[in-house]
Amino acid sequence: MSGVFISFEGPDGAGKTTALNAVLPELQKRAKKEIVATREPGGSPIAEKIRDLILDVKNLEMDDRTEALLYAAQRRQHLIDIILPNLEADKIVISDRFVDSSIAYQGGGRQIGVDAVTSINDFAIEGTMPELTVYFDVPSEVGLDRIKSNRSGTEDRLEKEKIEFHQRVRDTYMKLQEQSPDRIQVINANQDTLQVAQDVLELIITKFPNLFN
Fold first, then answer.
1. Claim: this prediction has a pTM higher than 0.70
2. Residue 145 belongs to what domain range?
3. For residues 68 and 120, what is the distance between their CA atoms, to the nearest angstrom?
4. In a domain, 201, yes or no
5. What's the CATH number where 115 sits?
6. Cis peptide before 130 (omega within 30 of 0)
7. CB proximity list for 103: less than 8 A, separation 6 or greater
8. d(CA 116, CA 113)
9. What is the block-wise mean pLDDT of the chain (213 residues), using blocks of 10 residues?
10. How far apart are the C-alpha atoms of 62 and 82, rounded to whole Å?
11. Within 10 A of 151 (CB to CB), how many other CB atoms are there?
């Protein structure tokens, strides 16, 4: 495949989606290839239906391993429907979350185990991994405070978890970064949004200088 795959990762309230929306117009203006932005969970019709099931606050009795399997299932469908076809078409694909989210949230946060969650996702993705993962790091307390301050609707199932859950998620993300420092690059998300967006833009352009003017 000749395309380029980039993922954005981070704990709840890190501001990765806000940053993606902020930098996307500038990246599109400078890019020598077409950029496709997508998200997980979801990204394609079937995957979006699985997203609704996973995040529905009414599904409080969902088993942790069921949750992990559903995330892997939507990821497989998203990969087949969106990611792989666009990479094969020589496009830049930027996904708001990918496999690292499952490892951090279900493996670490739910305490299922990193190896177990990695295993079921290896089956789903068949070796497809981002060339760059932009990880937005923010203290758990700050992220949760942002969610409470900015959200107008109801928190989803994961956002409702206790602070200890979110701390385990962050800790797992940092361990993943230590294991893959070339792929996973850290952005200090505990800054104002303009500075975060500028840092992200510089990181991506520096990583792929041949893709941007």
1. yes
2. 4-206
3. 8
4. yes
5. 3.40.50.300
6. no
7. 114, 117, 118, 121, 172, 176
8. 5
9. 94 94 97 98 98 93 96 98 98 98 97 98 98 96 84 65 92 98 97 96 97 94
10. 27
11. 12
